[in-house]
Amino acid sequence: MARRSLYQAADPAASPTASLPHSSYAHIRRSHALLLKSGDLASDDRLASKLLSFYSSLCRFPDAVLLLDDIRDPDPFCFSNLISALSKSPSVTDASSALALFRRMLRGGLPPDRFVLPSVLKACAALQSDLAGPQVHALASVSGCAGDSFVQTSLVHLYLRCDRTLDAQRVFERMTNQSVVSWSAMVGGYARSGCVAEALRTFDLMRASGVEPNRVTWNGMIAGFSTSGLTRESARALRKMHSEGSRPDGSTVSSVLPAIADLEDGLAGMQAHAYIIKCNLESDDCVVTALVAMYGKCRLVEEMLRAFGGIGRKMEVGACNALGVPGRGVKLNVISWTSIVACCSQNAEDTEALDLFGEMQAAGVRPNSVTISCVLPACANIAALGHGRSVHGFSIRNGMSEGVYVGSSLVDMYAKCGRIGDARRVFEAAAPSSRNVVSWNAMLGGYAMHGKAREAVELFDLMRMRAQKPDSVTFTCLLAACSQAGLLEQGLRYFETMSEDHGIAPRMEHYACVVSLLGRAGKLERAYALTQKMSLKPDACLHGDVALGEIAARKLFELEPGNVGNYVLLSNIYAAKGMRGGVDGVRDMMRAMAQEQVAHASRGDQSHPQMTQILERLEKLSVEMRKLGHQPSTDLVLQDVEEQDKEHILCGHSEKLAVALGLLSTPPGTPLRVIKNLRICIDCHSVVKFISRFEMREIFVRDTNRFHHFKDGECSCGDYW
């Protein structure tokens, strides 16, 4: 029987050069079935190899792997073809599968060659694997492929992706053919690492060597500076690119707009928008998304809407209502919806973000993983646990929960909703290969927020065991956890090793954690000395020492004259020391501001339809507390009023009102969650502890500093906050 080609088996009219539309998967499956039935597939590995190539090109990886299992003696081309396709996939799971196939190839006695190694290195780069990458590099050297230009370029990309710039530089310097691709990679790598001088020097050396930068080079430098937070350098690079006659494209503009957003420079954003229109880039979805995000961060909602209107897009009525503007009655795509959801979430319009997420699905637009990553912070910000769980369920059903950023957002959401155990379970459920520093930081931040220093330290040790490189945020979380638990020596040791062992320069947030740590331990002279050594302009932490408190307060009054919290902190120091004159002096300084704020709070409180029942419930609880000997901490009240009036003022603190409302609005035994935009005061802390035991409720209070989990009359902070 004459052997038929794959194309003849599937469709006699097809030709080997015919394109493969999405529907061709069905044709390939029919071809596969016919070849199995005829026995041709079992007798000719070349047909099987071609079929495997088709499956790979259509990203039908399970079919391809099953077919590979049926090939008696697969050659390197079979593995190379499938590994190449897997390495091009954006999924980290597929990158892991590519490495697994490569290991299988080696176990089968097939040596690596210059065709498969670049794909394997690309998979290592996608996983940011500090372990597998160097091992593959060693294999390339042993097999004699390390001198191949494609392998070398892939090694440069790998090391840059793993933040191993020096290793990338060593490979680059040994390259015999330093192409525009490798030069561009080095420029972009230095820019992403925040090494401005090195990026610019490499850019100049590139030209000096006779290789002219192209648009990819410029885009890499601009995007790198923007990613590393060097917003002004990113903008300068764009201006230089334009002045030298290189025309920016959609990728260029999409990279520089986040830099403008970080600066919150609305005028520069409008100028960039005008340039986008001039260059006819306003139909680029990536540009539109970046424009919307930029205007959202600059709080220019009308300009954001014009960004849609300028390209013929119209706003869905529900979305416009959520943003407080007239409806325009037209449909948005997933990128546009996601951008607006992100805009609301980033600008503290969390309820609107959740409403938009629902409107988006009602409009028939399916959210993607980026949408999920944008809506979960909104759930976290307002502790909307029910919504968060629904979004989690949606992500699982649609295969999005395993992505790094969705997973990290889920960890953060559960932690901020008081479910630290659920946060850890989500973290552990993620494949180790799919975790990056963002994932680890989300879990560390959750432990810090809940005051679980021991767990944070253990997680940090595990992070180092897994060869995950920490960053600045890692140490902020770690130092905050030590500060919450009073781990003085351990916290100071981490602060020292941060720069000595990890090369991370301390930022303001690191100094703030250490000052707080020293202050809580009564080491105020050391805390003050540390602030004097800082190269940054300090804010202040006041912890019980009157002389140092006054010095720090005077500095704060200069820096933040309108921040009532600074006055309250100093007043609390005076009150704790029984210095009534000091309290009166602070009260005189803030009288106008305080009166305005108290009046506003009073009006807001009385407007609640259940305020009478709320106050009655609090009064009943207060009576029960007095029977057990509880005395309100009236020394925290700054107003010069009678003792009884001070008790009434304390009764009106927002967390007490919120807890009372929760008691009225939920069935007995239901856990309560309260979010507070200031640190909880001593009196409220005592009251909520009592309520948790008296009402037999779990109560979670998230203030600006940490989580307090009240249960059976005790708090998770151990009264140390």
Automatic annotation (TrEMBL):
Keyword Repeat attached: yes
Keyword Repeat: yes
GO BP terms in the entry: RNA modification
Domain of life of the organism encoding this protein: Eukaryota
Segments for region (Disordered): 1-20
InterPro entries reported in the protein's UniProt record: DYW_dom (IPR032867), E_motif (IPR046848), PPR_At4g14850-like_plant (IPR046960), PPR_rpt (IPR002885), TPR-like_helical_dom_sf (IPR011990)
Occurrences of domain DYW (ranges): 629-721
Renumbered ranges of PPR repeats: 75-112, 179-213, 214-248, 333-367, 436-470, 471-506
PROSITE patterns membership: PPR
UniProt keywords, alphabetically: Repeat
GO molecular function, one term: zinc ion binding
Gene3D superfamilies membership: Tetratricopeptide repeat domain (1.25.40.10)
Protein name, entry field: DYW domain-containing protein
Organism of provenance: Spirodela intermedia
